[in-house]
Amino acid sequence: MQPIKNIIFDLGGVLLNLDIPKTTAAFEHLGAPEFKNLFGLGRAESFLKAYEVGTINDDEFVSDLQKLTGGKSRESVVEAWNAMLLDFPKERFELLQQLKERYRIYLFSNTNAIHLTAFSKTFSDTFNGASLDDEFTKAWYSHLIRMRKPDVAAYEYILKDAQLNAGETVFIDDALVNIEGARKAGLHGIHLEPGKTILDINWNLS
Fold it and tell me: Could you report the per-residue pLDDT of 131-148, keeping only the tens digit for each?
């Protein structure tokens, strides 16, 4: 086995606490009980998936959410969409600082423009104006590269873009389907199981 030199982290559920049922409940409250069939751990359907790969813009996405809710306001549907985004536990980023002494650290998130704006602000507010992207050698967001996990092509793009050797790289995600995709692309995968955090991982990777 080659020595591990690189770690690619997922964001939501790994570094950022998520509560997807909060968004589901918020849309139910707005009159869209079918939302729960469109979005969940490791998957996105219909226009939600299109938004995650950047093929529709913010206005089109919000319009689709408004249609689901029978025409509720832009503000209310954006608030419901962001309800799942919780906090960035500081101890996780203290761990990243330690890992940087031994590995190159990257980020790859299936996300979207509205969420990126929201969690970037949360990170900045939590860490005295710091930028989330600055914590990593490089960060990739699905809507900006127009590819998403678990598609093998997305991992291959990242490996090529950062000139990484797959055999020297570990990918960490809380969705098993995304780990399976990474392994198909030749990366090592660590599945962060429910109830676990990155503080529970044995970081003696090499």
Answer: 999 999 999 999 999 999
Q: State the Cα torsion 162-164-169-171 to the nearest 10°.
A: 30
Q: Is 145 exposed, middle or buried (0-12, 13-18, 19+ CB in 10 A)?
A: middle
pTM of the model: 0.94
Pick the CATH number of 20-82 from 1.10.10.60, 3.30.300.130, 1.10.10.410, 1.10.150.240: 1.10.150.240
Note the residue count of the chain.
206
> For residues 148 and 192, what is the distance between their CA atoms, to the nearest angstrom?
19
**Helix/strand/coil percent split, the chain, to 5:** 50, 15, 35
| CATH hierarchy code of domain 6-17+86-200 | 3.40.50.1000
